[in-house]
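// run 5 | inverse folding | seed 20
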């Protein structure tokens, strides 16, 4: 039996079965590989071909990238494939490759999906109607707690805001053109205070993630520094249209019910108990107060964006040593629910590390550290990647050290082909 003319070619017979050949490095594809499925299961390398004249018109094979690397299809000498000298097959993609005797041509059978956790370049492959992109900003770093004398109200460090998430489907990206991928770094936490009668240190805002200049998601806000006698606020959530400013969420600032944010706006944090929740913007970090009876505030959550960190545990005027706040979660619109805060007292513990996002979702916030009557107060929990805000560090009495703020979760970019 011969396939219809003009589909696979005029002379290529229909195989009774398709051979599968696996590889993890380059072996030149030649005429002997006709009708074969070449399954690349691992590695990043250039896959070379014999000349199209050796293949003749009508020769064909399949190539699949079932590994996690990037496979560059590289025709012989000055020959082209789909009009390009080379292009990259990203993970998950399967292509039908055919020779016309002069050059190679292909069409997509299964599309690619690629996740970037480090900055780099995405080169648009041919054969797609559009390209889906999702970017996630990094989480902010938590603030550290203060150290002061007994009888003073001492606050822990503020929890940090979560990063925003933005997505779009782009039509008309040029095949063979490189688009810069920027991954925001998680904000570093405020350093532990080791000197008596000293305020804490602020964290660092989370970095922005972007796809070229076409799409940006902003990082979460920094956790405030622990102080004596004052309430310390958590960082605002990152927005899809702007970075947070102090405890205010990033633009677009459409809010309702206090500090909770709609659409892509980052949530606000106005006191320890009302850290806002986000929709696509990040949640706001929990605060910390020096008042008796207060524990570290819980971090805000976000339905699609990244959650925020809990505030560090405080030491009240009656020298009660409090636990840190609970981190926020992803996929919810209520504060807390995530990583536990550390316990305060003579043997304080660190806030629990936030959970990494699963199935392409954002990370959760880290818990706040517990306060200390001796030794070193609990550090804020690290924010879960991607985008989780970190917890604030616990406060301490003179003679002990305060807890450091946690580090925010890194950002991420996801890119997929749409057939």
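// decoded
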């Amino acid at each position: 039996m011969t396939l219809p003319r003009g589909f696979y070619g005029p002379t290529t017979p229909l195989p009774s079965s398709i051979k599968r050949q696996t590889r993890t490095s380059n072996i030149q594809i030649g005429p002997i590989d006709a009708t074969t499925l070449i399954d690349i299961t691992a590695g990043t390398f250039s896959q070379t071909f014999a000349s199209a004249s050796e293949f003749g018109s009508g020769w064909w094979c399949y190539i699949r990238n079932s590994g996690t690397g990037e496979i560059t299809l590289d025709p012989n000498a000055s020959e082209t494939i789909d009009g390009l000298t080379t292009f990259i097959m990203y993970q998950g993609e399967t292509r039908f490759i055919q020779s016309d005797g002069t050059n190679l041509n292909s069409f997509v059978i299964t599309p690619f999906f690629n996740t970037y956790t480090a900055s780099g370049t995405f080169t648009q492959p041919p054969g797609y109607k559009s390209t889906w992109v999702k970017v996630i900003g990094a989480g902010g770093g938590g603030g550290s707690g203060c150290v002061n004398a007994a009888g003073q109200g001492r606050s822990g460090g503020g929890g940090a805001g979560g990063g925003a998430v933005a997505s779009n489907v782009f039509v008309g990206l040029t095949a063979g053109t490189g688009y810069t991928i920027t991954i925001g770094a998680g904000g570093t936490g405020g350093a532990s205070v080791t000197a008596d009668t000293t305020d804490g240190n602020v964290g660092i805002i989370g970095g922005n993630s972007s796809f070229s200049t076409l799409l940006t998601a902003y990082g979460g806000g920094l956790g405030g520094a622990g102080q004596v006698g004052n309430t310390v606020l958590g960082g605002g959530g990152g927005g899809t249209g702007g970075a947070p400013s102090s405890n205010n969420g990033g633009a677009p600032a459409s809010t309702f019910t206090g500090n909770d944010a709609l659409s892509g706006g980052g949530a606000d944090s106005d006191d320890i108990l009302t850290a806002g929740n986000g929709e696509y913007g990040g949640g706001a970090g929990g605060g910390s107060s020096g008042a008796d009876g207060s524990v570290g505030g819980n971090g805000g959550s976000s339905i699609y964006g990244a959650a925020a960190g809990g505030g560090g545990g405080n030491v009240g005027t009656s020298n009660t040593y409090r636990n840190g706040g609970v981190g926020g979660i992803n996929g919810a619109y209520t504060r807390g629910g995530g990583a536990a805060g550390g316990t305060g007292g003579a043997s304080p513990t660190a806030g629990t590390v936030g959970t990494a996002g699963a199935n392409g979702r954002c990370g959760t916030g880290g818990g706040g550290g517990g306060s200390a009557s001796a030794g070193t107060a609990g550090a804020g929990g690290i924010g879960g990647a991607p985008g989780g805000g970190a917890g604030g560090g616990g406060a301490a009495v003179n003679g002990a050290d305060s807890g450091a703020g946690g580090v925010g979760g890194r950002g991420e970019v996801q890119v997929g082909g749409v057939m």
